[in-house]
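User: Can you predict the 3D structure for this chain?
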Amino acid sequence: MLRLQAVGRQIGNTPLVPLNKIFQKKEVSIYAKWEWMQLGGSVKARPAFNIMYQAAQEGLLNGRKHLLDASSGNTAIAYAAIGAQANIPVTICLPENASKERKAILKALGAELIYTSQFGSTDEAQLKALELKNEQPEKYFYADQYANDNNWKAHFENTGPEIWRQSMGEVTHFVAGLGTTGTFTGTGRRLKELRKETQLISLQPDSPMHGLEGWKHMETAIVPKIFDAQLADQNLDISTNEAYDCLKMTARKEGIILSPSSAANLAGAIRLAETLEKGVLVTVFPDNGDKYSEALEIISGT
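Assistant: Here is the predicted structure, written as structure tokens:
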């Protein structure tokens, strides 16, 4: 537990940064949480740590039991980074089309990888993880990030209050994509609690076949159990091309190389901001472009 407590000091408290070059409109501003600036390099450090910490407190990771979960990559890397520091073995069911950078990072961190079909996305990875847990319950603690309340609670207890404090309570709209849905659910619930007028805008891919790794098209995917379908005040559909265009424009205007999912969040925030006369919009950049060779190819034109 002492090791895990030490890890916790490396998670959260990421900066909230204004984006005033890519979007300019009088009395409307956009801010983003730079979530890659913490252990593991993504927003998933928050739920991964909370899930592991609570499991350790309950004795579910005793005896060198493996933490087992399904992930498209970022949660896996967070688990592996935390596990490496806290001496907790990690096994991940991962779609085989995860980026080569993510696979390399996971192997370097010592995670055991079990690949699932690229056509089944994280839905198939979830089914495989459940199968392994049922076959070898003595070996695995199945974290199940899609159904584990400690996922959204990490954002309720930390991300939401950070945004409120950093924006000095002026945030009027929170915009975020839906994957495991923990970021949107937990952050949104806390911001609504702090001020019920705060508008929550969820983002989804515009089709089942999309290039926004980690995002879910809710009509065709396995809906996470932690998802609160009544929470959003508005939902916007984002195309992969729209996200890629925003990715390229952000690099040129803001000097930031984003991941496709971060660019999709920003694209949604910009589209919303264009309809407003006044507001302070906050979104999340789950990670940057370091783990996405295709992102670099897109913005460089190669």
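Residues 45-142 form a domain with the Rossmann fold fold (CATH 3.40.50.1100). The chain has ten helices and ten strands.
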